């Protein structure tokens, strides 16, 4: 049950990106913001021509991160 609860926001973001790209011909770009655990992190998630591109900086090496 906990895994499904954690995966639901990720699936929601991917669904949003898919719908946004399907309805428009242009690129979609979403800013990624840091939480209190890692305040120096930032980046963008972009969807263009059916491809997802995620750029991030200020993250710890070998860390595990989620997208909400």
Please summarize what this structure is:
This protein has a three-stranded antiparallel beta sheet.
Count of DSSP H/I helices: 1
- Apparent shape: globular
Strand order of the largest sheet: 1-2-3
Distance between the termini: 18 Å
Helix and strand arrangement:
Blueprint: H1 2-23, E1 28-33, E2 42-48, E3 51-57
Antiparallel strand pairs: 1-2, 2-3
Explain this structure to me?
With 68 residues, this protein is α+β, with helices and mostly antiparallel strands. It has one domain (2-57). The protein contains 1 helix and 3 strands. The protein has a 3-stranded antiparallel β-sheet. Strand 2 (42-48) and strand 3 (51-57) form a beta hairpin.
Notable characteristics:
single chain; 68 residues; alpha+beta; three-stranded antiparallel β-sheet
